[in-house]
Amino acid sequence: MIGRLRSQTMEWGKSLIDWTEDRTGAVTLMEHFLYEPVPKRGAWLYTLGSATLFLITLQFLTGILLLFYYVPTTDHAWNSVYYIMNGAYFGVLIRGIHYWSANFLLAVIGLHMARTFFSGSYKAPRELNWIVGVILLLLVVGLAFTGYLLRWDQDGFWASVVGVKIGSWTPLLGPYIVQFLIGGDVVGPATLARFFAIHVWLLPAAIAPFIGIHLYLLRRHGEFGSEFEYTDRIAKLHERQRQESYSQLELEEDDYDEAYDGESLRSEDDDRDRRDGGG
Ligand code: HEM
Q1: Where are the alpha helices (DSSP H) in 119-230?
Q2: Pocket flag, ligand 1, residue 57 (CB < 6 Å)
Q3: Minimum mean pLDDT among 18-22, 148-152, 271-275: which range?
C-alpha cells in the first residue's frame, strides 16, 4: 500500500517536473545554476560559499519581517523590539533567526574565506573574485556593526560609541567618518536614523549586486581545482600517458626481438659446436 502510494507520488512529481520543463525550461536552468563540479578532495569545504549565501538570504528575509514592527526612533526602538519579542506572532522566532544567522554568517564567511585562501583559489584568473569577496566581507561587517545599535540598549549603544571612536582614528578621513556616522556631536537620534538607513537600505543594496558579480565570476571560471577547470590539461596528460605507454610497449617489443634473435643465434652456435665437437 505504502509502496504503491510512494510510486504514484513519484509519478505525479515526475509529470509535474516534465510539464514545467516543457513550458519554461526552468529545470534545465536550475540544473545549470545549481550544479558546479568541485574537486573530489575536501568537497564539503566547497559548500561554505553556499552556506554563506543561504545565511545572508535568511538575513534579508527575516530583516524584512522585523521591519513590520521595528520603529527606528530613540523613543520607540527598544519598545518595538520588546514588542517583537513578547507580543508579535513568531516575533521571538524571527528575531532569533535574524540574530543567530547574523552570528553564524560572520563565522561561516570567515571559514569560506579561509577555504579559498588555503586552496589557493585567489590565484589567477580568480583574483578579481577574491577582491569582490573582500568587499562583501567588509559590507557584511558593516551590517553587523550598524545592526547592533538598532535595538537601542546599553550594549548596542556603547559598542557603537567604541566603533565610531575607532573609526575616528582613520588617517585623514577620521573626522568625516565620525560626522557621517553620528550626524552630530554625540550618539543620538540622528545616529540611530543613519545606522538604520545604512543597515536596511545602503548595505543590502550594495551587497546584492556584489553577490551577483561574485557568482557570475564563479560560474565563469568554475571551482578552483575541479576536473572541469583542467579538462584541457587532463586531456593532454592522458594523451602523453598514452604515447608514453605506446613507446614503452615498442621498447619492450624491441627488447623481446633482440632477446629472441640472440637466443636463436646462440642455439645456432651451439648446434655448430655440437656438430664440430661430434665430427
Ligand atoms: C556575502 C558573502 C559571500 C557569499 C554569499 C559568497 C558566496 C560564494 C559561493 C556560493 C561560492 C561558490 C561555492 C564555494 O566555493 O564555496 C563562492 C566562491 C568563492 N568565494 Fe565567496 N562568498 C562570499 C564571501 C567571500 C569572501 C569574504 C571571500 C574572500 C575574501 C570570497 C572568495 C571567494 C572565491 C575566491 C571563490 C571562488 C572559489 C573557487 O573557485 O574555488 N567569498 N563564494
Answers
A1: 127-150, 154-168, 174-182, 189-197, 203-221
A2: no
A3: 271-275
